[in-house]
Design a protein that fits this description.
It contains 42 helices and no strands. By secondary structure, the protein is mainly alpha-helical. The protein has a domain of 172 residues: Tetratricopeptide repeat domain (Serine Threonine Protein Phosphatase 5, Tetratricopeptide repeat, Alpha Horseshoe). The longest helix is centred in the middle third of the chain and has 52 residues. GO terms for molecular function: protein-N-terminal amino-acid acetyltransferase activity; ribosome binding. Keywords: Repeat, TPR repeat.
Length: 838
């Protein structure tokens, strides 16, 4: 048979696609799956001796090494394997192995690519679709999740979890009716076949289906009635009775059946008479929200039904207008609790202090003082203690600190063994700005009960606020595992104790500011000393330089630890994408997804980000100053070696105390690498700001921080955008907007090192959105922008003045304004601003 003319010769196969005798590889793979990593490695070494370019063996060896903790060596083998693969063309097994490795190293995007490549290259392992859907859920690619879950569902239709997973994916992608149909289809298949352990899962799925129906119905009365019918028909199979009743009431209110809805809310109140929300909704269903007389009658009646419940007695206090009747009602509510010795009496009524600040504090002061006069220490010891405790909290709230001290001292004198009294005493001293004394008061209380973890943590926190980090660590270490460390710092990082780490970071930052001030003062004074005294001061300067850098590095180290915790929280979701659906808790799973979308906007994370931003901006400014100025060589000292030796000895001693991670996982105990970064702004963006910026809503965003970040990056257009957006929230005449606009205007001066195009954009924004700003005066040396700010904006926002001070605008003019604005602040905040902001 003749050859076809012009037929192309077959191309030689690449090393990645060359067929192999893979029986040895399969054996090594089985050993890996059974966690016999060393045996698997031994077998792979024999295979690679025969052919060192066998990609599948290289990839599996990398995975084995990673599993044994040899991460660096594993990385080199994986990179070697990948370098031999072109366009993901490799065996399905190899792609699957690489996908598993990428997932283990938390490189989810690449893991998805390799898993998909495994399927595209002919893998018949349908379990990959499950792994793929989990990873796609982790990165938020829910369109791809739907496709993957559908494929997996088609392969394994006998498991309810797969039906639920598909329904959830359909719902998230807006395919509500398809999700309902999917759940309904399985309900028909499973009817009469459920075992007792499956009943809870069935209950959750029914409720989830009802949630979808309710969301899809919106305000359509006909559809809402179908949702209600579905709920009533299946009520006997649903375990979450609160959810059933709340859904019934919500539907009835939407359909206008207020009388029936009121009955449901009464049933809910009967089940849980301490839930304020049910009472408020009952008012709405009865149509009496704006009728104070009818509301008062309602709560009087409810108070007789539920005499032990708080809401029927508390809610009327928020709307009673007659002062005499309000006094009488307050007297009944407050004194009844004080007679019973309820420690939380003030906490219970504190919301009213804020809500009705013009009358409630005054009436309560008269009532409780009069009540205290009727008590005898011998016959009513409990009431005496907690009444004094109440009055102390009251006077603390109204900022009458001497009176607050007087009453807490009376309580302590009466019963000196009550721990709660020392906590309140510490709080009062803290608000007075006496932080060391506050910490000592807590320490005195802690010694009364050495087994109380709460007072232990509170004491440690107060010591940190007083900048006594050594004592704080000593106290908190009493409740930590210290097997391989001199204190509990390492254990606190292990258990992700954010409250301690953030407080320690802030304490280190304050110590950094103090050391920096002392260093500047000493350098100034050293410039005038004689040569004989120079050596004496040089040692102090060297020590202060180390302290300044050490505290800065440690503060950054602790702040970045908070970021790592939240990154870990995000990574931990990976396991729950399968666990929640396997357990049938679809509603909880959707709540977790919502939580994950805002994880980087949580208070502790934002607090750490703001604290770290100051340090990163300071590092950036220092780098700019170094680049702009010539480096002057320092004089060599004859005693250098001796001084360096003593300083190194001190470092070695301190290293064990501040160590936060095992030595083999961290070689930067003092955070020196963080503080010596050549790109501090990039570090801030990568560690904190980008994650926050991707999740935060326009309403909740910290626009001042966004403005500063973009300004430091030289992006004046984005800084201008931050001001414009913020002005829509707080108003264009707010003092903080004025301060930001002035700073932006001054950035457009001819001598500023920003790009001309950026300056032009900033000018246009200011001219169009903030036309009152004298943009034409920015290059005038005689124009006083602080005077302009004072004449055109209210001086009620100290943060606006501090922002102007931060940019070194006429310090002599701005400082008196700051001092005047902080006069009304409590001593604690006032002292902080004076010591660490100015």
């Amino acid at each position: 048979m003749s050859k076809r003319r012009g037929a192309a010769k077959p191309k030689p196969k690449s090393a990645a696609s060359k067929p192999k005798d893979n029986s040895g590889l399969l054996e090594a793979l089985k050993l890996y799956e059974s966690k016999n990593y060393k045996k698997s490695l031994k077998l792979l070494e024999a295979i690679l001796k025969k052919d060192s370019s066998y990609v599948d063996a290289l990839a599996l060896k990398g995975l084995d090494l990673y599993s044994t903790g040899e991460t660096e060596e594993a990385k080199s083998y994986i990179n070697n394997a990948i370098s031999k693969i072109k366009s993901f063309k490799a065996s399905p097994i190899c792609c699957h192995i690489l996908g598993i490795y990428m997932r283990s190293t938390k490189n989810y995007t690449d893991s998805i690519r390799w898993f998909q490549a495994s399927l595209d290259n002919g893998s018949t392992n349908h379990q990959i679709y499950r792994d793929l859907s989990i990873l796609q859920s982790q990165i938020g690619d829910f369109k791809a999740v739907l496709a993957s879950r559908k494929k997996y569902w088609e392969a394994y239709m006998g498991y309810r979890a797969n039906w639920t997973s598909l329904a959830v994916a359909q719902y998230i992608n807006g395919e509500r009716q398809q999700a309902i149909n999917t759940l309904s289809q399985f309900e028909k298949l499973a009817a009469g076949k459920l075992s007792e352990p499956e009943l809870y899962e069935n209950s959750e799925c029914i409720m989830y289906k009802n949630d979808i129906m309710y969301t899809a119905a919106e305000s359509n009365v006909e559809k809402l009635n179908k949702v209600l019918k579905h709920l009533c028909d299946n009520e006997k199979d649903i375990f979450d009775k609160y959810a059933v009743l709340e859904r019934k009431a919500s539907i009835l209110m939407k359909t206008g059946e207020f009388k029936e809805a009121s009955k449901v809310y009464r049933a809910l109140i009967k089940r849980n008479p301490d839930n304020l929300k049910y009472y408020k909704l009952l008012e709405v269903t009865l149509g009496i929200s704006n009728d104070k007389g009818l509301k008062l009658k309602l709560y009087k009646k409810l108070a007789t039904f539920y005499p032990k419940a708080e809401p029927p007695k508390y809610i009327p206090l928020s709307f009673i207008e007659d002062e005499n009747y309000l006094r009488e009602s307050l007297n009944e509510y407050v004194t009844a609790q004080l007679k019973r010795g309820v420690p939380a009496t003030f906490s219970n009524i504190k919301p009213l202090y804020r809500q009705r600040s013009d009358i409630i504090p005054r009436l309560c002061e008269d009532i409780v003082t009069e009540f205290l006069g009727t008590l005898e220490a011998s016959s009513d010891p409990s009431a005496v203690i907690w009444t004094n405790y109440y009055l102390s909290q009251h006077y603390l709230f109204v900022r009458n600190y001497p009176k607050a001290q007087e009453y807490i001292d009376k309580a302590i004198e009466h019963t000196p063994t009550m721990v709660e009294l020392y906590i309140l005493k510490g709080r009062i001293l803290k608000h007075m700005g006496m932080l060391s004394e506050a910490a000592e008061a807590l320490e005195e209380g802690r010694k009364l009960d050495l087994q109380d973890r709460f007072i232990n943590c509170k004491t440690a926190k107060y010591y940190l606020r007083a900048n006594d980090i050594e004592k704080a660590v000593e106290v908190v270490s009493l409740f930590t595992k210290n097997d391989d460390a001199v204190n509990g710092v390492k254990d606190l990082h292990l258990v992700e104790a954010s409250w301690f780490i953030i407080e320690q970071a802030e304490a280190y930052n304050r110590l950094h500011v103090d050391s920096k001030k002392k260093l500047e003062e000493l350098r100034t004074s050293s410039a005038e000393v004689t040569e004989e005294d120079e050596n004496a001061d040089s040692q102090k300067i060297k020590e202060l330089e180390w302290d300044t850098m050490k505290f800065q590095g440690l503060s950054l180290k602790r702040y970045t630890a908070i970021s790592k915790f939240y990154q870990q929280f995000e990574d931990d979701q990976l396991d729950f994408h399968s666990y929640c659906l396997r357990k049938g808790t679809s509603r909880a799973y959707l709540e977790m997804l919502d939580w994950g979308k805002s994880i980087y906007t949580k208070p502790i994370y934002v607090r750490a980000m703001k604290g770290a931003s100051r340090l990163y901006f300071e590092l950036n400014d220092t780098l700019k100053e170094r680049n702009d100025s010539e480096i002057v060589p320092k004089k060599k000292s004859n005693t250098k070696n001796k001084k360096d030796s003593s300083l190194n000895k001190r470092k070695d001693q301190e290293r064990k105390i501040v160590m936060a991670y095992p030595a083999d996982k961290d070689n930067d105990e003092f955070g020196e690498k963080l503080s010596n970064s050549k790109k501090p702004l990039d570090d801030f963006l990568n560690v904190f700001f980008t994650k926050y910026n991707n999740q935060v809503t326009d309403v909740d965003k910290d626009y001042v921080l966004a403005f500063l970040t973009e300004y430091k990056l030289g992006k004046l257009a984005l800084s201008a955008g931050a001001i414009t957006k913020y002005s829509k929230i707080v108003g264009p005449n707010a003092s903080i907007i004025g301060a930001m606009a002035i700073i932006l205007a001054l950035a457009t001066r001819d001598d500023q090192p920003f790009e001309d195009i950026a300056k032009q954009v900033a000018r246009k924004v200011l001219e169009s959105d903030f036309s009152s700003i004298p943009i034409n005066e920015v290059n005038s040396p005689d124009f006083n922008f602080i005077k302009y700010f004072k004449d055109n904006y209210k001086l009620d926002n100290v943060n606006a003045l501090l922002l102007l001070d931060y940019f070194q605008l006429n310090k002599d003019d701005i400082k008196p304004l700051i001092l005047k604005s902080i006069e009304t602040l409590e001593p604690y905040k006032k002292i902080y601003i004076l010591e660490y902001e100015l």
